[in-house]
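> example.struct
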């Protein structure tokens, strides 16, 4: 039944990928690095080859894979945020080389913005790049925190300062596999309860080398290669996070529908209510994805949809006891894992407090 529903929702290719992710979800929850055993599977090949800059296609892909298991998606080698940023401010050579690396070598990637003291508030970012004129190389110093795959990534993007002020923020490609030593980097995995495949990390840099050709945005205006590029990139991923929450919500609804033997009138009405909300939000996310490609700075609308989708999946997992009683988690491992994972979306690409600020600013400027 699950196989049939997955393909009904998402088509043959994406449905098959969702089914595969569901089948390995428990294994990846125990050991995210086990994903490397499946590099030849069509689902992982699909992710590594994903170069689409069409946001609607991206949200469809992410929703389908979250219907399978979001943690498997996060654990998989793929371009992710780094690839989106390279599309924004990378040169054609940087963009092509990056995607060729991901496609052929299957590296895990990362996107390091957040820091321990000020989170993702880039205005207060303390990490910095300094240029060594004698060696013709940049050095990175600082501490990045709470970002995915930091302990296992071979390549990614890191954000830091080159100078004080809002225009001093820059991004660079970082090559862990080539340049990491025992003295220039300290990487540690943070304890996680949900979405363990994301492997949230703490990484300290001590004069970590960044080659000149790996600095991003040198060919674009200084106003476009810093915070502006970061906002545009986060917008495209933020709507994907909303799609992930919708995918997991649909999976939970389908599980309840197929596993529960019978429903009271109240239970049936509640399940139908959630399905209506899922369908409505899916449609709104798709419409917003199209508009986002036309105007990549539609922050308020994307923040609103991410907040609604996050609230929806959290509300749904809290209702699981209504359908299966107090023993739900003991009798249904899928529901127990769903409960752990569902609350992680809140912290991906900004908590609801950040989203509400964006929504309010959009309301004030009449862009929402």
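> example.seq
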């Amino acid at each position: 039944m699950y196989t049939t529903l997955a393909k009904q929702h998402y088509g043959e290719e994406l449905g098959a990928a969702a089914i595969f992710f569901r089948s390995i979800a428990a294994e990846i929850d125990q050991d995210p690095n086990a994903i490397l055993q499946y590099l030849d599977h069509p689902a992982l090949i699909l992710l590594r080859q994903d170069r689409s800059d069409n946001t609607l296609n991206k949200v469809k892909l992410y929703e389908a894979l979250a219907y399978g298991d979001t943690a498997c998606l996060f654990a998989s080698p793929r371009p992710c945020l780094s690839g989106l940023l390279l599309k924004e401010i990378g040169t054609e050579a940087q963009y092509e080389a990056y995607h060729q690396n991901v496609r052929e070598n299957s590296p895990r990637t990362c996107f390091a913005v957040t820091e321990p003291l000020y989170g993702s508030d880039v205005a207060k970012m303390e990490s910095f790049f300094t240029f060594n004129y004698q060696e013709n190389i940049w050095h990175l110093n600082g501490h990045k925190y709470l970002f995915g795959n930091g302990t296992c990534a071979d390549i990614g993007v890191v954000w830091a300062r080159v100078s004080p002020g809002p225009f001093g923020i820059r991004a660079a490609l970082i090559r862990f596999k080539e340049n990491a030593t025992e003295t220039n980097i300290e990487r540690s995995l943070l304890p996680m309860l949900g979405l363990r495949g994301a492997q949230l990390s703490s990484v300290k840099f001590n004069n970590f080398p960044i080659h000149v050709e790996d600095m991003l945005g040198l060919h674009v205006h200084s106003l476009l290669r810093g915070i502006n590029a970061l906002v545009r990139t986060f917008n495209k991923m933020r709507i994907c996070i909303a799609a992930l929450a919708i995918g997991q919500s649909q999976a939970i609804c389908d599980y309840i529908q197929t596993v529960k033997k019978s429903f009271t009138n109240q239970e049936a009405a509640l399940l139908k209510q959630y399905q209506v909300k899922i369908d409505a939000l899916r449609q709104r996310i798709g419409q917003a994805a199209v508009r986002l490609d036309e105007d990549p700075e539609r922050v308020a609308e994307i923040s609103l949809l991410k907040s609604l989708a996050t609230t929806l999946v959290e509300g749904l997992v809290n209702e699981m006891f209504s359908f299966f009683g107090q023993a739900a988690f003991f009798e249904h491992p899928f529901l127990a894992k769903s409960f752990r994972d569902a609350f992680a979306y809140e912290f991906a690409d900004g908590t609801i407090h950040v989203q509400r600020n964006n929504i309010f600013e959009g309301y004030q400027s009449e862009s929402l």
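> remarks
The two ends are 40 Å apart (CA to CA).
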